User: Fold this.
Amino acid sequence: MNWITNYVRPKINSIFSRREMPEHLWTKCDECGTMLFHRELSENLNVCTNCGHHMPISPRDRFRTLFDAGVFTEVSVPDPVEDPLKFRDQKRYPDRLRAAQKKSGEKEAMLVAEGEIGRTPVVVAGQDFSFMGGSMSMYVGNAILAGAERAVETKRPFILFSAAGGARMQEGILGLMQMPRTTIAVQMIKEAGLPYIVVLTHPTTGGVTASYAMLGDVQIAEPNALIGFAGARVIEQTIREQLPEGFQRAEYLLDHGMLDRVTPRGEIRDELITIVRMLMKEPPAIKGDLPAPEPMLEPVAEPAAEESPAEPAQDEDEPK
Assistant:
């Protein structure tokens, strides 16, 4: 035995047998730069545990924590005509759609589901910014209309989580036509006397803000979410003035009366349960995942049993 056997060979073996670190175990916070373990970040709903920065979360992951026990049923959405304008830039529009579907694992930029939150039946729609920037397409218009029709049919409140960069340019005027179309869908809900609640997430801009995202009976936003129609740089160049600090952020809009609440992601579920039950004129929800207790009935007195005649007592001295 020598130093080659005792030291060099084990060192070489350790180098070649060293396993690579799996990807996606850590995520860097965009705001503070903290490295966050993926499991810890997921349990905290993609909110940085160090600075509270709200990172993107997919509608499906959001729904798993929103609905009771994570159980929900997807609402079917009609498929629109594929590539009606035969649009092509650097790629064909169908190729971009397939790439977005592969990346996000979803069919389109809007997911609609129904289920219960706090034992209250609701219909919920969630927009996915990772799917082509959550852009408003004909499918998104169909999804909102399908969710509104389902809410009216089942007499359930409709909750929508918005996240978009505007209308989808590959569909041109057909994408912009979803603005009046979704506005009519919201009007259907209101004419049925049902609540329509919007939760604005980062970012919500463009034609989405100019239509269904700002028509809620109650407007809630996540902290520091960017909400607006035109970009801040475009506005500055148009009015030739410097915009105030925090312009188009959720807290700024709350201070100026555009929003009702700014609520952290971890508290949105409880707040939605409270608002929905109040608007539906139902009693407050009971904490926990148990149904409301059954009303106690007054005990019914049982008929007294017939007493048998008592036997005469025997004298202790009397033989038995």
